[in-house]
Amino acid sequence: MTGDSALILAAVAVGVATYIQGITGVGFGMVAMPLLVLIDPGAVPGPVIIAGIFASVPFLIAGWRQVAWRELAILLPGVVIGSLVAAIVISLVASNTLRAFVGLLLVVVGGAAVFSKSRAPGPVAFTSAGFATGFIGTVAGVHSAPLAILYRYDTLAKVRPTAAALFVAAYILSLAGLAAIAPSQLGSPTIVLAMIPGVLVGLFAASGRFARPAGGIMRPIILMLCILAGLRLIASAMGGGILAAMAI
């Protein structure tokens, strides 16, 4: 899909993704990325990562006092390493192969999380989630999937600003890695500019009269998004098919 219609649909996609992040705390990449792959593959990963920064900063500012800074301190080193590793891998491995691998990983991990019991994650879980956030985010623009699994039992008041803080850092690291090693993956500024109005509409909806925090159903929503994002990545890597025609 090309032309003005693609740009309009890209704006709609990131608008919906921003709204979902507002009511669940995560989900921007899991919603925006699969849709953008179908609308315009050139929007992934660079442009969607840039749009993610604009979508996350307001949530970070609004919930600054609720950010779990100690947890962020554990997550961030993993994000740095994951972003660097991903940038190197992107330059060596075909993009379709990477997307299929990441998609399968999201389906397996997301599916396993559905049946897992509630327990407080330890340092290993946070470090692993940080690495996965950096790696998967740089490869496919889906930074939110690992955090969705890590924070699936926490409250929205904590998850939204904490995830937003990590997203901003991860997005910047991913962009830096892409710029240094795979600049062609940064995409066109035209696509980014077209997405900004969608982000603004999504922010308005998530903070205004249409805001409906997910509350008790946040866990199944974010796990479902994680699995669907994985399925879409696999479908896009395989060149379409029935799954590629599904809408989130």
TrEMBL record:
Q: How does it sit in the membrane?
A: Multi-pass membrane protein
Q: Is Transmembrane helix given among the entry's keywords? A: yes
Q: Which UniProt keywords apply?
A: Cell membrane, Membrane, Transmembrane, Transmembrane helix, Transport
Q: Which organism is it from?
A: Sphingobium herbicidovorans (strain ATCC 700291 / DSM 11019 / CCUG 56400 / KCTC 2939 / LMG 18315 / NBRC 16415 / MH)
Q: What is the lineage of its organism?
A: Bacteria, Pseudomonadati, Pseudomonadota, Alphaproteobacteria, Sphingomonadales
- Subcellular localization: Cell membrane
Q: Which residues cross the membrane?
A: 6-39, 46-66, 72-93, 128-151, 163-184, 190-210, 222-247
Keyword Protease among UniProt keywords: no
Task: Specify the domain of life of the species encoding this protein.
Answer: Bacteria
**What is the name listed in the Swiss-Prot or TrEMBL entry for this protein?**
Probable membrane transporter protein
Q: Name one Pfam family in it.
A: TauE
